[in-house]
Amino acid sequence: MNQFEPINKAYNTVFQTGKLSIGLVVPIENYATSPVPTMQNHLERVKLIEKLGFKALWGRDVPLNVPSFGDAGQTFDPFTYLGFLAGQTSKIALGVASIALPLHHPIHIAKSVATIDQLSQGRIILGVASGDRYEEYPALGFQYEKRGEMFRENFKYIRSAQETFPILETKNYGNLNGASDILPKPFGNKIPMLITGQSRQSIQWNAEFGDGWMYYPRNLEQQKHTIDNWRKLVAETSEYNKPFIQPLYVDLQDNDDFLPQPIHLGFKIGANHLTTYFKYLENIGVNHVAVNLRFNQLPIEQTLEKLAEKVLPNFHLNKTVKTQ
């Protein structure tokens, strides 16, 4: 029960039991004063974080720019963008955090994500969620109140699509009768699907069906309790352990000994104290942290270099392997 399931290259490189890996949320830029990023230098920065040893990059599914939400994400369609980045990188995991399942037909999701998985030779990780921006539902003709039911159906449909000539009946997305197939199939064992938050489901359902759990930052004691409960439920329904992932907003300071000050879902912090905090997270069972630099004040390239020099070497999974 200590090992994670062998799924694909990304899943089994980013997630290892008892270890913490570190990735970055795209866009990799400061856009604290606007909901819309510039996306300038985005490709150069993605290539830089791969070179520096970060294990994953995470794009988001934001169909509409909703002003009340305050964040348009990377603005690009997540699957188109990750397909582009798959051709521009060679080893970094390509993550989605997260696709709002009820807003998309599962055939389109299954085909898109398996295509990226094939083209990248197993570097895709699919985060999934029920969606929390009300305005997107009427714009797409869906009922916000049904998003929990639609999430479950969509999730199971995507799983079925990875089988050969699948058979499945749904209320919201049509039926698969075994007379046709959905191609391509994943490069690896399956597409790893990480559930974000509750996604309108019980934690028992998430522990049984998800391949991992993305949850929000909490104080260490509360987070440890959450992880312990999750792992207990996982053990009841699975022969494998499953990873726990969280995001963290970071405003890295030039002074490495700068004491942490709370910001939205994260810290204004120096590299030494960030390392200590990550060690605490590793000790309580967090397997991956997706760092978001939206509020970061230092120049981005300087920040990435400092993180690579001061923080990543303290965590075994993030050490860059030299190649010929």
Structure report:
It is a single chain. The protein has helices at residues 9-14, 42-52, 78-86, 106-119, 136-140, 147-161, 203-209, 220-237, 271-284, 300-311, and strands spanning 21-25, 56-59, 93-100, 124-129, 167-169, 175-177, 193-196, 213-214, 244-252, 261-263, 266-269, 288-292. By secondary structure, it is of the alpha/beta class. A hairpin with a 5-residue loop joins strand 5 (167-169) and strand 6. Helix 2 runs parallel beside helix 10, helix 7 packs across helix 8 (220-237) and helix 9 packs across helix 10. The longest helix is centred in the C-terminal third of the chain and has 18 residues, at 220-237.
Features:
globular; alpha/beta; 10 helices; eight-stranded parallel beta barrel; 324 residues; TIM Barrel
Task: Using the 3D structure, state the CATH architecture.
Answer: Alpha-Beta Barrel
pLDDT averaged residue by residue: 95
Molecular shape:
globular
Number of strands: 12
* Assembly state of the chains shown: single chain
Element-level helix/strand string: HEHEHEHEHHEEEHEHEEEHEH
CATH level-four homologous superfamily name:
Luciferase-like domain
What is Rg? Answer: 19 Å
Structural class: alpha/beta
Number of domains: 1
Characterize the main sheet.
8 strands, parallel, barrel
What fraction, in percent, of the residue positions are helical?
Answer: 25-40%
Low-confidence stretches: none
Into which percentage range does the β-strand content fall?
Answer: 15-25%
- Terminal CA distance reads 36 Å
Number of helical regions: 10
